[in-house]
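step: validate -> pass
step: tokenize input -> pass
step: predict -> running
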Amino acid sequence: MSSRVIVVSGGTRGIGLAISERHAIAGDTVFSLCLNPEKISKTHANIHVIKCDVRDFKAVNDCIDQILLEVGKIDALVNCAGIQQPPSDGLEHIDYDDWRNVLATNLDGVFHLCKAVIPGMKRRREGVIVNMASVAATDGYPMACAYATSKSALIGLTKSLAKELATYNIRVNAIMPSLTMTDAALGLPTETLERLVNLVPLGRIALPEDVAGVEFFLSSPDANYITGELFRVAGGR
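step: predict -> pass
step: emit ->
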């Protein structure tokens, strides 16, 4: 498989970083979008880190224009940028600004990036979009309604875009990880983490690399007949 151009939002931490590195090692050219590139100390030679706030529609368009000017195409977009909401005691206690920030990052950011890359994919009549949803989208996430809502919306966007873009040979799928060993998981109290592990039939929390492997398959020619699907990566839960 020849080298491809992959854009990964949130590509410098957690699942996004694992995806960026998986593609870079395979020889792909990766553009990892993040808010604070100055904090990135080391990365693979094939990974190019670009500052981009996915909540800002103009910033996203400028970023995609820069990539297209440099390399001329985008083969795959992986929407990994996402945030959790601050802890709350229920919906009535969620701060409105926190609600808007979660939706602006987790949902609007995906809309901005898809809107920016789709025209080029249509012209080339090929492309792949992979959205990072969550098991919270279908299972619910108590005390985190904003997060679960943003991920549920991604399912509707994924399935609608898959049908909308199929005639252009553009495939759109979503991955639904359960709790994954990222900074968010590492910040949980030990007893909480142990309780969550006990709920997983495979007996462990997912690693970012577990999710990256699924994304790598979905963006590859091996998945050429797969679109509009949701891939649950939850250890059997």
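step: describe -> The two ends are 34 Å apart (CA to CA).
step: cleanup -> pass
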